[in-house]
Amino acid sequence: MNTHTAFELDYLIDQIRDEVRETSGMTGRRALETDIMQALRQVPREAFVPEDLYARAYANRPLPIGYGQTISQPYIVALMTDLIRPQAGDVVLEIGTGSGYQAAILSRLVKQVYSLEIVAPLAEQALKRLRGLGYDNVEVRTGNGHLGWPEHAPYDAILVTAAATAIPPALIEQLKPGGTLVIPVGDQYARQELRVVSKDAQGKVEAKDVLPVIFVPMTGNPGEAAGRPTCL
Q1: Which of 52, 56, 131, 188 is the most exposed, having the fewest neighbouring CB atoms within 10 Å of its CB?
Q2: CA 6, 71, 90: angle at the middle one, nearest 5?
Q3: Are 106 and 113 spatial neighbours (Cβ–Cβ below 8 Å)?
Q4: Which among 226, 105, 104, 76 is positioned nearest to 163, based on CA atoms?
Q5: Could you tell me if 60 and 90 are in contact, meaning their C-beta atoms sit under 8 angstroms apart?
Q6: Residue 179 sits in a domain of what CATH number?
């Protein structure tokens, strides 16, 4: 990393800390866990953005990555990661691989990441990028996020990086008792809320909205997902 990028990274980390404090009344977080902030320092965001946007890689904002998708704002990446309370032995499902940046952050914090991306070229690019950078505890495949990835369930946590109009029932089913699901819920052209869903040891599910957000819509046919409708 050159000196200019190091300065930009320090400035980005300061911006994230400031925004965490400013939104603490909604999120309940006045500061994020130290290991999450360290992961943000370890993962080179410039490697996950298009070459023509390299100069803006450390801006605290989302950036386009093609196919109508974006790499999320670093503050949102950090907050969503913190909300799932990652532990070193966790197995985590991510819905919406995109460029692979969120998966790379998670890979520094948990045992294994399984990531689904519905846009096949993005999935292929992300897997190649992650492998090339040495993030070997991330598996990526193309698939409909509404269905989850049942082969590796149940998951300690599930993180969704696209807005669903309702929480897919398959994701609730694939969440381990004691686990946490973080997902933006709402319409593409209306209000979206970042929702934290917890499942207790007895399987009881509770949900709480923590922050207004704007995400690209979750695509794929929800009708393909088996299971009961959710009211969360």
Answers
A1: 52
A2: 85
A3: yes
A4: 76
A5: no
A6: 3.40.50.150
Q: What backbone torsions phi and psi does residue 164 show, to the nearest 5 degrees?
A: -105, 150
pLDDT (tens digit per residue) in 133-190: 999 999 999 999 999 999 999 999 999 999 999 999 999 999 999 999 999 999 877 7
Instruction: Answer whether residue 113 is part of any domain.
Output: yes
Domain count, the chain: 1
What is the spatial distance between Cα 11 and Cα 8, in angstroms, rounded to a whole number? 5
Write out the two tokens for 55.
């100069």
Locate tokens 């940046």: which residue? Answer: 101
Rounded distance, CA 90 to CA 74, Å? 22
Residue type, 48: F
CA atoms in the 13 A half-sphere facing the CB of 7: 4
Active-site residues, by number, are 72
